[in-house]
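Here comes a specimen:
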Amino acid sequence: MNKKKRLLDPPKVLVLGFSTIILIGAILLTLPIATINQEGLPFLDALFTATSATCVTGLVVVDTGTTFTTFGQIVILLLIQVGGLGFMTFATLFAFLLGKRISLKERLLLQESLNYISIQGVVRLTKRIIIFSAVIELLGAILLSIRFSFDMPIEKAIYFGIFHSISNFNNAGFDIMGEFRSFTAYVSDPIVSLTVCTLIILGGIGFIIMNEVYEYRETRRLSMHTKVVFWTTAALVVIGTSLIFLFEFNNGKTLQPLPFHGKFLGSLFQAVTPRTAGSNTLNIPDLTQPTLYLIILLMFIGASPGSTGGGIKTTTFATLLGAVWSQVRGKEDVIFFRERIVYSTIYKALTVTLSGLFLVVIITMLLTITEQGKDFLMILFESTSAFATVGLSMGLTPDLSSIGKVLISITMFAGRVGPLTIAYAVAMRRKQDAFRYPKGKIMIG
């Protein structure tokens, strides 16, 4: 019985679920009907694309707009939607439609999938996630469709609006503009830039936050978690925008030729998109090295828990900063908004950060071997982008070797499902120590 329970652990089910969706997507993308040349993608390229879409990353080995037919693009869009909201959310949606009751096992899976604190209220939260997502994506699609209608036929504008709204709300970064351009043609356009930025922020802030804000009119309170997410997100966007504006102001290939409002919008977009969408209005290889390094840091931090984004998460970053600040001040406790962070949370934040760091370091090291002759910053940028499921690229991904594609695919999968979830999924058992060793002392620093 215990062995059966271990086999059905929620983390294991999530890993297997995502793997199955990726495999189905890869098979569909190899069909002749999926590509314009009617030949289908080679399986490795299809597997890479399906992994990138399901893990809402956006790294691509072929151009989405010029390689895939409408069928292929819709397959990618469905993978993005399922991967962004979680396959358990969609399974619950079908259960609702069929009038089925959500079992305890399914509630546990939802809790794990959404990174929720308890199973209490998780079904109600799932219903609201579906509604929030549908409303936000619809509004984004309408705004983008109206703007695109000035540049293309109305049918194409509506299709482009829907595709890019879903892609960016789910923090995927896939685009069908063609020739790997993303939104570079709209760098100074306030409607496109601000709409896409809003979609990225809403998708990356977390559904739990949305639900709490929705209930604020009744509760009249926000949890410490929500406050930390808001302040950390705002600080990263403001600091990122300001620094990119400074670093790129005199760069003739990026901001210098633009009017002032274009400089601001370009800086804002590139500060928001590493959290973790992957769309861009500035050509990434043309950015200065300080900006590229800053984007790597922003990508590693990523979005917030329970969202469509990746990275170590804003709350993890804030918790570690709080722990450092408390140590510097000689305080034992980490305090946010007059509430104390328990030590187990600090340990988890440290574990998540080091797991992500080790993964990026190892993949970067391996890629320096498999992709010889490539610039180190380019390789580090690509590895971090894959881990944080961002999708920004300096141009390395289309030129990856077969081994390199496999390594980046593994990194995207690990970044989406989560290093801790994978660790739990493959562990045979978790147990509490029967005893504790005596305290020992070690010098730090």
Summary: The radius of gyration is 22 Å. Residues 280 and 377 are 19 Å apart (CA to CA).
